């Protein structure tokens, strides 16, 4: 039996891996972020690792075929609204993350402690995502409040 992450009931369970990654990066970066160049090195490393992993996935996957004459070529405009939505989502979260971090550090809370506060928030998010489907099934009225 194959684990299907695309079912609505399993979205929260598959989403939690991104939350765990964010929590680990926040804690690790807070310990090593004495200078802004350290953050840039981590960013460049993450970009390189992501590019390598994407290349490895597409290069070694027998099901991945580049567009040919019989297939319609990939067009970025077909998914432009998706990319715009992702960009706006990142911009909105980035402002919130920055505001919270600046607010906490201006009130003399260390960057490491602030990262632990982020980790606590992410743990709450993981619990919510994991139990999201059963909660929505139990409380059907909650579905209407999220529309």
Major sheet description: none
- The number of E-state strands comes to 0
Alpha-beta content class: mainly alpha
Q: Percentage of helical residues?
A: over 70%
Shape: globular
- DSSP summary: helix tally: 6
Total domains: 1
The first-to-last residue Cα distance is 33 Å
Percentage of residues in DSSP E strands: under 5%
Give the ordered list of helices and strands: HHHHHH
| CA-atom Rg in angstroms | 20 Å
Q: Kindly report the average pLDDT value.
A: 76
Low-confidence stretches: none
In terms of quaternary structure, the protein is single chain
Describe what you observe in this structure:
The protein is mainly alpha-helical and 147 residues long. It is built from six helices and no strands. The protein has helices spanning 11-32, 36-59, 80-106, 111-130, 132-138, 141-145. Helix 1 (11-32) packs antiparallel against helix 4 (111-130). The two termini are 33 Å apart.
Features:
71% helix; 147 residues; mainly alpha; 6 helices
């Amino acid at each position: 039996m194959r684990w299907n992450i695309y079912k609505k009931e399993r979205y929260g369970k598959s989403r939690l891996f991104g939350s765990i990654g964010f929590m680990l990066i926040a804690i690790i970066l807070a310990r090593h972020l004495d200078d802004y160049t350290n953050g840039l090195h981590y960013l460049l490393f993450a970009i390189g690792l992501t590019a390598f992993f994407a290349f490895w996935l597409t290069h070694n996957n027998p099901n991945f075929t580049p567009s040919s004459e019989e297939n319609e070529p990939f067009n970025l405009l077909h998914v432009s609204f998706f990319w715009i939505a992702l960009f706006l989502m990142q911009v909105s979260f980035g402002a919130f993350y920055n505001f919270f971090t600046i607010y906490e550090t201006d009130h003399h809370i260390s960057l490491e402690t602030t990262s632990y506060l982020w980790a606590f928030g992410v743990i709450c998010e993981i619990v919510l995502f994991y139990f999201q489907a059963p909660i929505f099934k139990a409380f059907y009225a909650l579905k209407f409040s999220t529309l």
